[in-house]
Amino acid sequence: MPSRLVNKWIVITGASSGFGAAAARAFGAEGSKLLIGARRVERLEKVASEARNAGAPVSQSHALDVSKTASVEAFVRWVRTHTDKIDVLINNAGGALGLDPVALGKDEDWENMFQSNVLGVLRMTRACLPLMVDNPGSYVINVGSVAGRVAYEGGAAYCAAKAGELQITRALRLELCGTGVRVGTVDPGMAETEFSLVRFKGDEKRASKVYEGVEPLTAEDVADALVWVASRPPHVCIDEMLLKCTDQAAIHKLHRRTKA
Ligand code: NDP
Ligand code: 8X3
After folding, report:
1. pLDDT the model gives residue 260
2. Which residues of the chain fall short of a pLDDT of 50?
3. SS percent in the chain: helix, strand, coil, step 5
């Protein structure tokens, strides 16, 4: 049976690395048409080309900064030059900055995290909804985190931002009830991407320590979950999916193998 995602229009934010890039390749392999955005346009174009090679009949990229309304609006104007409907919007752009306790937190980091993880999801959704409300079965899939469900030390602002994303998902689903538009969140635990490198502002040693002795989720594992969620039949909505690596029983309970 051909994939339900063949020729579907998929918009992915934050597709220049990690989950977003892996998702572009995975949806491409399903035969979907891709419109992807992020700030690092050269990397984005490379991902678009990889998705084309994977099988996407259309795979185009455009600069997008979800923390700026003007950039989101320009991006969606560009989307409209390709299609008048979106089948799947994946609000994935975001991440963490710093791991400071509240007492040492920096305004710049807090503001950045709320801009991308919370306001970015709101802005992108507002701009894309006119292309989705007359398209029953379309799907807004937000990328949340276990951090939106369980707090940890040093994560106050990031956990609050991802908890915000979860509540946006829940409120939007209520608002859109009756339109046929589905709304869900895919919430991964620890996954090895550029997430920690960004959080620790380029400190590679500190970033790699996060994953030491653990077999974390990969970007491809999360992309696989996104494809599965998006490919359910139109009357099925996966509201919330939580996925973690087997070594992470809970946010504070990690099994780390020591070196022999
Ligand atoms: P990466 O750092 O590898 O990818 C983050 C992506 O988001 C990049 O493509 C980046 O692109 C983009 N991005 C960040 N800020 C903006 C912005 N203002 N406008 C547009 N794009 C932006 O990390 P992940 O793939 O791991 O992260 C993807 C999502 O998954 C994030 O929302 C993150 O919070 C979440 N998450 C990550 C987990 C993990 O352990 N890795 C676990 C759970 C959730 P560019 O810099 O080019 O703009
Ligand atoms: C990323 C996972 O546990 O580092 O959302 O917050 S965690």
Report:
1. 62
2. none
3. 45, 15, 40
Domains of the chain in sequence order: 9-254 (3.40.50.720)
**Which position has the token pair 């029983």?**
249
| Ligand number nearest to the C-alpha of 23 | 1
Name the pTM for this structure.
0.98
* Positive/negative CA dihedral, 92, 225, 221, 52: negative
pLDDT at res. 121: 99
Residue 259 carries which side chain, given as an amino acid letter?
A: K
Residues contacting 97, CB < 8 A, separation 6+: 108, 109, 112, 113, 158, 198, 199, 201
- The region that residue 203 occupies, defined by phi over 0 for left and psi between -120 and 50 for alpha, beta otherwise, is beta
Which tokens go with 2? 């051909």
φ, ψ dihedrals at 119, nearest 5°: -65, -35
Q: Give the pLDDT of residue 85.
A: 98
C-beta separation of 50 from 28 below 8 A: yes
Q: What is the pLDDT of residue 173?
A: 98
Residue with tokens 């399903």: 30
Q: What residues line ligand 1, using a CB cutoff of 6 Å?
A: 13-20, 38-40, 64-67, 92-95, 116-117, 120, 143, 145, 188, 190-191, 193-195, 198, 219
Ligand 2 pocket (Cβ < 6 Å) reads: 145-147, 155, 189-190, 195, 251
- 169: Cα separation from own chain's centroid: 13
Q: What is the pLDDT of residue 259?
A: 72
- Report the separation in Å between the CA atom of 166 and the middle of ligand 2, taken as the mean of its atom positions: 14
